Amino acid sequence: MTGTSVAVRGSILFMIGVFFSIIFHFIQINRRHVTNLPVEFLDNLLAKEWWVPPCCGLASAVIGLLYPCLDHHLGESGPKKGEWSSVMRCIAVFVGINHASAKLDFANNMQLSMTLAAMSIGLWWLFDRSPSGFGLGVGIAVLATLVTQLLVYNGIYSYTQAEFLFVRSWCPCIFFSGGVTMGNIGRQLAAYEKDDQTEKAKVD
Questions:
Q1: What is the model's pTM?
Q2: N vs C: which end of the chain shows fewer Cβ within 10 Å?
C-alpha cells in the first residue's frame, strides 16, 4: 500500500461523500423541511452551510480507508475485485433509508426510528455481516450523533423539529447505514489495489 494509492482512494471517497451529503440534504428539505434552510438550499448551503459537504467528504474518506485497514489487521477477508454490483445495491438501499427517513409517516418518532434501525441492520446483514463492520458502524453512529448534538446545541447547525437531545432521533440509523455503505465502497476500492499488487508480484 503506497501513499499515492491511499491518497487516490481517499480523494474518490471524499468526492462521493460530498455528493451524497448534497443529495441527502436536498431529500430532507424537499420532503419534510427537516433542516432550517430555505428552498434555495444550494445558495444557502454555499453561503452558510458550506462546511457541511467538506466535513461529510472528509468523514467518508476516513471511514472508507478505515474499513479495509481494520479488515487487514483482523485478518478478515474483504470483497473480491469487481463486486461493484453488490456495492451499488448497498448504495441503493442506503438512499432508500434516507428517503424513508424523510417520507414515511408513523404514529410517533419511536416507530420511525425502530423501522429505520431495522432497515439499517438489514443493510449491514445483506452487504457486510462482519463483526468489525457492525462495530465500526455503531461507533460511527454514536460519534457522529454526539458531534451533531454539539453543533446543534451551540447553534452552528439546527433542525426544525429536533425531538431527541437536540437532534432527530433517526440520525444514528442514517449514520450507521452511511458508515457501512462507505466502508463497502472503501473495501472495493482497496480490493482493486490488492489484486493489482498481487498480479504485479506474480509477473515479477
A1: 0.80
A2: C
